Amino acid sequence: MKHGRKLTSILLTLALLLTLAPALGGNARAAAEWSIDQTIDADTEISSGVIVRNNVTLTIASGAKLTVTGGIETLDHTLIVEGEGTLIVTGGNGANGDTGGDGGAGGAGVSGSLVVAGGTVEVTGGNGGVGGNGFAVPPGHADGGPGGTGGAGGAGVSGSLKVTGGTVTVKGGAGGKGGAGGSGSLEVSGDTVTVTVTGGAGGNGGDGDSPGAGGDGGAGVNGSVALGCGTAFVDGAALAGGITVTGGSGNGDGAAYGGSVTVADGCLYKAEGTDLYPAGAISDASALGGKTLIPVLKIVGPSTTKFTLPHGYTTGPTLVVGLQGRSSFSASRQWCSNTTDTILTATSIDGATADNYAVPSGLAAGDHYFFFEAEDSVYGGATAYLCAAKVTVEAEPTPVTYSVALIGGRNATASGGAVKQTVDKGSAMTAVTYTAERGYHFEENNFDLAGVTVKWKNKTTVVVSGTPESDVNIPVPDAVKDASGDGGHTRPERPDRDDTPTTPAAPTTNVSGGDNTLTISVTVDGGKVTVSPLTNNQIKDVAASDQPVVIDLSSLGKDVTSVSIPADTFVKLAEALAQRPAGADRTVTIETAVGGVTFDAGALAAIAAGAKNGVFTMDFALTGYEQLSPTQQAAFEGQQVMGSFALSMLVNGAAVSSLDGGHLVVSMPFTPAPGTDGRFYKVWFVADNGAKERMPSAFADDTLSVELPHCSDYVLVYEDQIPVPKQVVLSPQKITVNGVEASVEAYNIDGTNYFKLRDLAALLKGTPAQCSVDYDASRNAVLMTRGAAYDGATAAQFTDKSATTVPSPQTVELDGKDVSFTAYNIGGNNFFGLRELSAFLGYSVDYDEAANTAIIESK
After folding, report:
1. CB 160 within 8 Å of CB 179
2. Are 488 and 443 in contact (CB under 8 A)?
3. Is the Cβ–Cβ distance between 769 and 845 less than 8 Å?
4. Range from 24-38, 218-232, 601-615, 823-837 that averages highest in pLDDT
5. pTM
6. Using an 8 Å Cβ cutoff, are 370 and 364 in contact?
7. Is the per-residue pLDDT at 238 higher than 60?
8. How many CA within 13 A on the CB side of residue 739?
């Protein structure tokens, strides 16, 4: 966010940066510091140089001018200049040499990365100091002593320079050896721009017995030059914009281009004279020295450049390009195609000579690249080309099949189809007929489950048939013993009842605990499922092992999003699991077709505390981003939102607002969008007022899992890069752990406290949230194990290293599973978010505003 304030009204922190004096040039002195965006709306001068401590945007209003003497040092950051005003930067001059001594080097105008998006920018490197004259004539010598060598001129811009707008002039400083104009890479693009880069001139050495050597001229640009294509075109003899690079003069003249020069796809450049340069590398860049390059033709590509088409598609996209050039512009058009991303082996498409092309149907599965060529007919017939689109045709999908398993049917013989079948989606299973053994019969019971019907035909026959809609286990009724003992086949049979209406029995589901599994009935009403009560003996059976208890509703269809369980059943499950020995699993998982929710012991206890009677209800639904309020949506402006989901829980109709330190794990079958990596999908909690917090999540085995401390709205965001921090300071807050104040190195990064992982592990040692921390150098991975004690200690002393903060790509394994944290490397150590770690480790975080204290509790 830009801060619309005058530079003169901003309080700039001043510090003596003696170690930076060589970069800024001249004598060491207090430099201004920028760590936030700057706005200049009046003429302003800074005579001591500038240190940029963050990525900063400098906006200079029309008519305003900012003059900086002593250079700008951007460290590892980037300075972006925009607006319509003027920026003039001069590097510090090198000191003159003493008698017989060498002159000092001039400082760079801008040391580091510079992006110019508008306005007028002039950057000049500082001049090198003059070499000192020779010593006075000593006895026996006819001439003076040797003269000193002149100092090197400073570079105009020592790092990368990117220009997307405005007028830019860069000059290297003069000196014993001329400085480069732009020492790093140069990238030019955008609308009409004018860029002039000149290497500094070489100077003379001091006079004396042997005069100091004169220096060579500096290069125009030492690094690579990338020419993008704007809208600056030749019209007659007039030039609009252009790029001119000249080497400096001296004892030996400097080269204009010290590195490669390339023209972007879709562009055609013209140099002074008749030379034309289409896309690609310019083989003889030395011939361009001092000439002005201007773009004469630009191909504007389609708004969408990547398309994915399903197998068997009938209509392909239409690719539309545009050509920009002079008022007298004239060019031929031709479309080409290839199965690899190269124009060299592409094939021209017959008849495709317009500004649009409809991708035909029937392309084979795989990648197809479509190129557009434009041949200029005014300047010698040179060709520009652009890869306009990549079209990927999906392979024929693997047929979807469902597994059908028939369970039960004891005291009967199955015939017809197999009791375990694999059925193609949309196809009927092979019917299976169960015939009761002599002395047994079937009680009348008909029901449907996932498209499969269990139908009672008569006392001795049950038929299972239908078209399955998902993987399903079908509980076939057992045949029961006849009361008279004379056998089911000796009884008079009722007529076939195919046409007799029946009331379907309630579907069933499985509840399992380790090897113990029981079948209970459920009722289904649209997307709502109600689970029948479990008896005390049933609860004892499933709780008898050390394995998790799972209520499996996944076979009831993807419409199921609401689950109700008698509160008494939920309470007794929690009580039974609490009696399991230490180390045994004490969780309950509710599985549905759209995802599972696992309750740890703390969450079970919190819910059971208020659920003695009535009903416990859980609602879990994948929702659209549009379901969120405008305030919630605004909180994610600028982020790549991929979806959202909502989780709520009610006990007797009242919302469960707190889990008292317990946690839920939501696991969802998940397929990342094409071109994305599942590890970078992150889950954020968003409150009604727009406040948000990232939840710990992990992606593995086509499943996205997220650990939640409460029920609410959650948003799925794709984050393949950790954001560069805007503000980093040593945390001003005191920190207590279980009431004891701790002294550790902590930093506040954009409003959030970050800790060194090993320090936090040391503070939590001996608490329920303790964890061990190790490092595997072979994999560059941090290994965390929950419940294990860490044997290290916190550092006794530390210094402020906030200026070294950079995003950290550190790999972390938690209990053997890859997880992704927002982490920063500060002074060579990785720091992690306090609240984000809390959801993994189980401690609570609170804040006492009056005492300015972060409170960690784990008891």
Report:
1. no
2. no
3. no
4. 823-837
5. 0.45
6. no
7. no
8. 1
